[in-house]
Amino acid sequence: MQTVRDLEQLRAAIAAFRAEGLSVALVATMGALHAGHMALVEAAKARADRVVTSIFVNPRQFGPNEDLSRYPRRERADADMLEAAGCALLWMPPVEVMYPAGFATTVSVTGVSDGLDGASRPGHFDGVATVVSKLFNQVRPDFALFGEKDYQQLAVIRRMVADLDMGIEIVGVPTQRDEDGLALSSRNIYLTEQEREAARMLPRALGEAARAISGGTAVATALERAEAALARAGFDPIDYVALCDAETLQPVDDLERPARLMAAARIGGTRLIDNLAVEAESVAQ
Ligand code: PAF
After folding, report:
1. pLDDT tens string 43-53
2. Where's the active site on this chain (predicted)?
3. Residue 250 belongs to a domain with what CATH number?
């Protein structure tokens, strides 16, 4: 695996793939890799001849009181995992390469970015859309893979790619979970033992609500029960538990179209998010 940190080297490496007629898939990450990221790499390998992984902790998607300075950084271990997984190229731009002096552009996707995490974390999705646009322009992949755990991020990127005719196939990869159901996240390492124990209530409460809604329980009732269960487990604040249209992410109160149950809540100092697909009479993960 080749590791590159400047644009010239990146472009030369991508040009070499293209000269051989090879297809390219991008896995964009902020590092601190875990099995969820490795599932993206595996899915990328299944689709394209060469996998490019980026590691860039993007300051523009962190709010002023968020965890940018303490976000886990483990370059060596990440590189070893990617090499072992068969990633061809690791793109690790420094901040000044991604955002040189004078950088003045923001990519903003309205509508799908507005509610849920967009409301709780103002500016977050502008930061994501801006850096992902840059990564797409830098790598020019055929495919890009994103985890369904960050479901709103996936919806924002799909909208952006469609709106801006980027011509990249966006592939959503199902959430990877620990044995007790907790969605894998680089932020799980912040949890104390006690918080980790309580955290499993998040997937459990969502699963119960999803089953109840599928079985005909009123959406408002199921959401209230899920919020109460999270509060009892110690989540505070609960930013949202909401049933949304799976594409637009507008709140819905029936299952006429594919829907997604979305939640974000804080346990101790750590904000966790999760989501599940909900269908009438059956729940698909
Ligand atoms: O999901 C992430 O790790 C980040 O939001 C992404 C897509 C790499 C953009 O910084």
Report:
1. 999 999 999 99
2. 37 (proton donor)
3. 3.30.1300.10
